[in-house]
Amino acid sequence: MTDNRAIGIFDSGLGGLTVVRELIKILPNEDIIYLGDTARVPYGTRSKETIIKFSHEDAAFLLTKKVKIIIIACNTASAMAGYRLKNSLKVPVFDVIIPALKEAKRISIKGKIGTIGTRATILSGAYKGTHGTPCPLLVPFIEEGILKGSAISHVLKDYLAPLKKKKIDTLILGCTHYPIIKNIIQKEIGSKVKLINPEKIVAEDAREYLTQKGMLTGKKTNGKRQYFVTDLTERFRKVAEMFLGHSLNGSIKKVTLG
Amino acid sequence: MTDNRAIGIFDSGLGGLTVVRELIKILPNEDIIYLGDTARVPYGTRSKETIIKFSHEDAAFLLTKKVKIIIIACNTASAMAGYRLKNSLKVPVFDVIIPALKEAKRISIKGKIGTIGTRATILSGAYKGTHGTPCPLLVPFIEEGILKGSAISHVLKDYLAPLKKKKIDTLILGCTHYPIIKNIIQKEIGSKVKLINPEKIVAEDAREYLTQKGMLTGKKTNGKRQYFVTDLTERFRKVAEMFLGHSLNGSIKKVTLG
């Protein structure tokens, strides 16, 4: 059995392109439709009610594109709206949190796990049983392309201090932006701490599901990728390519939600 | 002549409360209706098209409240949508840029004026004839309440370096957030450089207009203040009071725009 419909992915902004990068690596033939809600990014500082409303609008847009599954490539949206979307949508929904948490618990030796993320993600308690620390300034730094230097190092040092005190052995990067700075995070938290990248794990999770259900594409050529955003600025391509790790092949269109 | 209708003010978020603070000081009897578009803040990183759309929605909301004038307490919205709002609305519209620029030109001795602001404000060219430098990370730092310390000092040093090189004698704080950190800005740019606070100037500008037109309120008691936001989180009160400089007296209500 095959299923040639596209995989749908949404994120509050462009950070979710790190998930697209992983999907392209492991499922190169799949069509992908990405939506970044760039007119309303960031979600991580907003209320639960607003994040749920925005996430439903994002998912509704992807459904109009007849996707076969939806991946929530945003920790904040996964934490605040993941459960509701899974219960209300007609297609399978994957979130970044559940598989990452499972993987962290599998590999942690002492069971001392830390999580870094936006304020909304950490306060949601979705990364249950881990020591959470909100890192609200990391997203702005990364979106500015400031990936090293004194300022971000100072900020990171302050954020990670409580987790170092807890002597964690595993650290979940609970925001799709963070893999971009994983080297300085590893340096600051110490080389013995294992980092968990949810965007790799959710891509694996989706592949496993599609394989088991006979829902992989039947196409043998490279998949078609379409990118939709709710706001388009001149910096879009530059920031998008930073997350994607290569040049954007595919159309970019602006859409209006809500 | 008197006019008891309220003064309407909008901002992308809570930074515009620095204008409310000034208005309360100089026009204590006036009723004030404030709208902060906290569900879609920040505007400074978005496209012109999106900023114009959001600004029109903000102004439309204030008009439903029968305000007598509208103050755009946001440099980004002033830069991108000020002209259009002035031409399309039925009430007088005040922006923060035109009076600040006039004041800067009046007090600058050498005519070497610098402006700091969001990326959208600086790229708009609205602060004509000044040396502009976008400072995109200052708003996130201020909204986090990080108003001093190594990290923000490093960031500020980098941002101000090109203006120091130009030997400016006057610096426009082209974002309503910046007066909150005016001490460290003054320290970094040097004590001889004069800082221009647009939020004081626009409040003066509005008072002058209302006085000349006989549109001041006839009330002799303290004005009524109503605050509306498009998203309400637990941090709202804390951040709002930082900008307002005192406790919030008045109702806060959540509204939906767009």
Distance between the termini of chain A: 36 Å
Structural class of chain A: alpha/beta
In the sheet with the most strands of chain A, the strands line up as 4-3-1-2-9-10
| Annotated CATH architecture of the largest domain in chain A | 3-Layer(aba) Sandwich
Q: What low-confidence regions of chain A span 5 or more consecutive residues with pLDDT below 50?
A: none
Strand content of chain A: 15-25%
Describe the structure.
Two copies of one chain form a homodimer. Chain A is α/β, with parallel strands linked by helices. Chain A folds into two domains: 7-95 and 199-254, 3-Layer(aba) Sandwich (Rossmann fold), CATH 3.40.50.1860; 98-198, 3-Layer(aba) Sandwich (Rossmann fold), CATH 3.40.50.1860. Chain A contains ten helices and ten strands. The first copy, chain A, has helices spanning 17-26, 48-64, 75-88, 97-107, 119-124, 138-143, 150-165, 182-189, 198-212, 236-244, and strands at residues 7-11, 32-36, 69-72, 93-95, 113-117, 131-134, 170-173, 194-196, 225-229, 251-254. In chain A, the strands form two sheets. Chain A has a six-stranded parallel beta sheet with strand order 4-3-1-2-9-10, with helices on both faces. In chain A, strands 6-5-7-8 form a four-stranded parallel beta sheet, sandwiched between helices. In chain A, strand 5 (113-117), helix 5 (119-124) and strand 6 form a beta-alpha-beta unit. In chain A, helix 4 crosses helix 9 (198-212). The N and C termini of chain A lie far apart (36 Å).
